[in-house]
Structures are given as C-alpha cells and as structure tokens.
Amino acid sequence: MNKKLVVILSAMLFISIAFKILKNNSLFEINQLHTKTPGIGIQANLKILDQFSITPPILSKTGKSFVTLNKMGFDINYTNLSWVAEEFINFCEEHPGEYVLDVGAGYGFLSRYALSKRMFVISNDLEMEHLLYSRKKVKNPDEILRLFLNTTPFPYLDIKKNSLRAVILHRVLHFLPGAEIDLGLENINSWLKEDGKVYIMVMSTEHIAYREQVLPDFERRKKNGDLWPGMFLDVPKYLPTQAYCLPEQLHIMDQEVLKNALQRHGFEIERIGYVSMQGFGTEDGRDGKEAIGAIAVKKTRK
Ligand SMILES: C[S@@+](CC[C@H](N)C(=O)[O-])C[C@H]1O[C@@H](n2cnc3c(N)ncnc32)[C@H](O)[C@@H]1O
To answer: Alpha helix locations (H) across the chain?
Structure first.
C-alpha cells in the first residue's frame, strides 16, 4: 500500500478513537453527575451537558423509526400520534406549569410535546444518550429550564409524593416483569396528585404475528389466577424481523390484565382499548390490535 495512504488512514483511525474516548469521558461525567443528583434528575440547562457531542439516531431497517441505542425497541418518528399520546398532550394543555413524568422517553418526542404545552417535564430513560439527543432538539431557552433528564430505571425513581399531574408510559411496560409493573403503578399512584392521570400504551396479546400461537397459553394462565400471564413472549420466534433491536423476551398483556392491575393500585379507568400500529412493522394483515392503551385516574383510597 502507498505510504501516504497508510499515514492518512492511521490519522483517521487515531482521530476517530480520540473522538470516541472524549465522547465516552463526557458521557461518564454526565452519568456520574446524575448519580449524585437526588430526586427528579439533572436540570437540562446545565452547561456540562453541552460537552457531549450528539450522534444522530440511526433509522431502523423499515426506515419508519429510530433504533434505540440499548436495543429496547424502536422510537417512532411520529406523524400520527397514538390516541394515548394525543390525550396526554391535551391533558398537559389543560395544566400548564405542572410536573409530568415521561417514563421510557426514548429520543423524547413526547417530553418535547409536553414542554411545548408549558409543563415541567421529567424525561426518564435508561439511556442518557437518548435524553441528550432530545435536549439538543429543544431550542427554546424557557423549555430547557423546565426539562429534567433522569436515567434511574423505572420504577425506582425518587419522586415526591403528590407532585405530578400526569405520568406517561408509552411503549415501555412490555420491557418490565409483572412485579416491577406492580411496584411502578403503586409508586405512580403515590407520585400523582389527586385526580392526576396515568397514560399507558403497551404491546397486546392480539398482535397478528403471534396471537394464534400464544393466546391459548395466555388464557390458561389467566384462568389459573396468574396476574401477569403474558410474560416471556419469545421475540426471535415471533418477531424475527424486529429481534435485532429488542430483548429476547417481551411482556404482552390484554385489556383485562392491564385494567385489573390499574385497579389494584388505586386507579379508576377512564379509557381503555386497542391502539393501532398498522403503519409499522413488516407482517401482512395487521388489524389495529397490535397494542393496547389505557388512561386511568388516581382516586383517594378510603
Ligand atoms: C420502544 S422505546 C419507546 C420510546 C418512546 N416512548 C416511544 O413511544 O416511541 C422504549 C424505551 O424505554 C426505555 N426503558 C426500558 N426499560 C426502562 C426502565 N425500566 N426505565 C426507564 N426506561 C426504560 C428504553 O431505554 C427505550 O428507550
């Protein structure tokens, strides 16, 4: 190989390694800062956060979403919002100046909607890089002041009782086992103010890709009193085209299971139903039953 070419390639390699090290160092510092910050998270206007250079998210194979960096599903580049998201945003509009929590915010599109409705937003995700990308997209200085970045795994967040107006868990609960969902709903109930609301969208048992194979076993477990009969959906087997960006197993549920869980933890159901994901994925015959959604209101327990 030509000597000049070798020098150029070595220099490029050196620059890319140096860039990676710098990036990892600043991410490490930011994560350290988060660990030392008690409560709702790092305030997004902190200058140290500017040190981190953002790499734009990568499109999924279908080109309809971004892949998450931690292989926790796809962050949808929404043009059509789900009814759950739409109702959440409308609710925010009615309560400007209050606090909301976006659990599993991913690249933060819902957090940014809530900011635009003048909410204080705790944007929570396991992956700090997702949240830093979202922060970069917030251009309004007033909105930056109302944004908090939080990477504590749900349900273990440290949030004051009776402090939130709403919590949204949009396409995240299917990554959690039943015990953590139970703990999470109990915590959300304590974090919410009276009449505060929880908004949920989660994968359904009736997705065309697997319903015929999994429903008999799901129904049997449910009949036997299992509160979370849809844990352990085998992803490589039933969702092979999406498996490259998902964990090995997912937790699916039907409306009854979700309704019962919400009621066990002091919520009154306001709305529950299917949420269509027909515009996404690769299977033929999607029929609008790919996900389920619920909106529930905190009621004082007697
Ligand atoms: C499929 S994405 C959903 C992103 C966005 N909410 C949406 O609807 O497009 C799921 C996100 O949940 C996050 N996540 C998974 N488990 C979590 C947990 N226990 N606590 C906080 N975030 C979690 C992942 O890091 C990932 O970014």
So the answer is: 3-36, 83-94, 109-116, 128-137, 141-145, 178-191, 211-223, 235-238, 255-264
Torsion sign (Cα): 59, 64, 67, 71: negative
Residue 80 is classified by DSSP as: S
**In terms of residues, how long is the chain?**
302
Residue 90 identity? N
Domains defined for the chain, CATH in brackets = 42-298 (3.40.50.150)
Interior CA angle at 181 toward 292 and 86, to 5°?
40
CB of 66 sitting under 6 A from ligand 1 = no
- The pLDDT tens digits of the residues spanning 151-190 come to 999 999 999 999 999 999 999 999 999 999 999 999 999 9
Estimate to the nearest angstrom the gap between the alpha carbon of 22 and the chain centroid: 28
Question: How close is the Cα of 277 to the center of ligand 1, in Å?
Answer: 17
Q: What residues does 198 pair with on adjacent strands?
A: 167, 296
Q: Do residues 244 and 73 lie in contact, with contact meaning Cβ atoms separated by under 8 Å? A: no
Specify which residues 59 forms β-bridges with.
Answer: 66
- What pLDDT, in 10s, does the model give residues 230-286? 999 999 999 999 999 999 999 999 999 999 999 999 999 999 999 999 877 777 778
Measure 204 CA to ligand 1 centroid, in angstroms.
17
